[in-house]
Specification:
There is one protein chain. By secondary structure, the protein is of the alpha/beta class. The protein has 2 domains: 100 residues, Leucine Dehydrogenase, chain A, domain 1 (Rossmann fold, 3-Layer(aba) Sandwich); 128 residues, NAD(P)-binding Rossmann-like Domain (Rossmann fold). Helices cover 41% and strands 17% of the residues. Strands 1-11-8-7-5-6 form a 6-stranded parallel β-sheet, sandwiched between helices. It has a 3-stranded parallel β-sheet with strand order 3-2-4, sandwiched between helices. Strands 9-10 form a two-stranded antiparallel sheet. Helix 1 packs parallel to helix 10. The two termini are 31 Å apart. The mean pLDDT is 97. Bound molecules: guanine. The site of guanine (GUN) has 6 residues, from strand 4. Homodimer. It catalyses: (6R)-5,10-methylene-5,6,7,8-tetrahydrofolate + NADP(+) = (6R)-5,10-methenyltetrahydrofolate + NADPH; (6R)-5,10-methenyltetrahydrofolate + H2O = (6R)-10-formyltetrahydrofolate + H(+). Belongs to the tetrahydrofolate dehydrogenase/cyclohydrolase family. Its EC number is 1.5.1.5, 3.5.4.9. This is Bifunctional protein FolD.
Length: 296
């Protein structure tokens, strides 16, 4: 069997297009332009690239982008004062503090200072609790993107066996909650799981989010399963730098029914879902209906 390739780049372009159309309607009908504030502390080159890309995508979707770049030695008090000002600013519907933060700053404290209604990353402890109890929340972007692709491929996920390999707060745990919300039977596995290969072989939906290059080989995959690869690992091969996922793509693609490639699978969905979350936050803030198909 040769798997259907789930084209995340095309899917993300579709999501961004739907966000842009909805934003245009919000402007025309209600005079509202959603706004996203991104805060970057320090000069981490990878973070600078992400932040630029987020700002550009926000503007392309017709929304306002507010970038706040702070020095690496910014004090916690200064950062918290900025977050407080953004929380109070009605033009700002979404706030994202780019992680990782410099070591002298307490990331949990900073994230939990964001108004949960503006927490477009879905990292605030209130949003974590709301998601865990099946209530309306802001949902972390990467798992939301995975859920959208799975719903599109399967229609209903009800009753399917889902295995999430990885237990991070950003991907593994919220992914498991979302799959449970769609009535999957969910297992969270990780690097210490006994008989990980056997556990993976039970999965109708296998989500790999462990951060280990090509850790999951094809013979861990149930024939016909859907494989969602969240990993983005930079490796050296044949003297060149290459991006690979957490699954061994060639062997998994022979067995799976559908698979996301790396790059071009889950990756592009993360920013698309950040835009979707910003739009959702703007609709909620103004008491307007949420955009259909862009939320959990
Ligand atoms: N750094 C890398 N990915 C992310 C993300 O999704 N959100 C934030 N805030 N920081 C990140």
């Amino acid at each position: 069997m040769s798997a259907k390739i789930i084209d995340g780049k095309a899917f993300a372009a579709g999501v961004r297009g739907r966000v842009a159309s909805h934003v245009a309607r919000l402007k025309a009908d209600h005079g509202i332009t959603p706004g996203l504030a991104v805060v970057l502390v320090g000069e981490d080159p990878a973070s600078e690239v992400y932040v630029r890309s987020k700002g550009k995508s926000t503007v392309e979707a017709g929304m306002n982008s507010y970038e706040h770049k702070l020095d690496a030695d910014t004090s916690e008090a200064t950062l918290l004062a900025l977050i407080d000002a953004l929380n109070k600013d009605p033009a700002v519907n979404g706030i994202l503090v780019q992680l990782p933060l410099p070591k002298h700053l307490d990331a949990d404290l900073v994230i939990n200072a964001i108004d949960p209604a503006k927490d477009v990353d879905g990292f605030h402890i209130s949003n974590v609790g709301l998601l865990g109890t099946g209530q309306k929340s802001m949902v972390p972007c990467t798992p939301l993107g995975c859920l959208m692709m799975l719903r599109d491929h399967h229609g209903s996920l009800s009753g399917l066996d889902a295995v999430v390999v990885g237990r991070s707060n950003i991907v593994g745990k919220p992914m498991a909650q979302l799959l449970l919300g769609d009535s999957c039977t969910v297992t969270i596995a990780h690097s210490r799981t006994k008989d990980l290969a056997e556990v993976c072989r039970r999965a109708d939906i296998l989500v790999a989010a462990v951060g280990r290059p090509e850790m999951i080989p094809g013979d861990w995959v149930k024939p016909g399963a859907t494989v969602i690869d969240v990993g983005i690992n930079r490796i050296e091969r044949d003297g060149k730098t290459k991006l690979v996922g957490d699954v061994h793509y060639a062997s998994c693609a022979e067995v799976a029914g559908a698979i996301t490639p790396v790059p071009g699978g889950v990756g592009p969905m993360t920013i698309a879902c950040l835009l979707a979350n910003t739009l959702t936050a703007a609709c909620r803030a103004n008491g307007l209906p949420e955009p259909e198909g862009l939320t959990a």
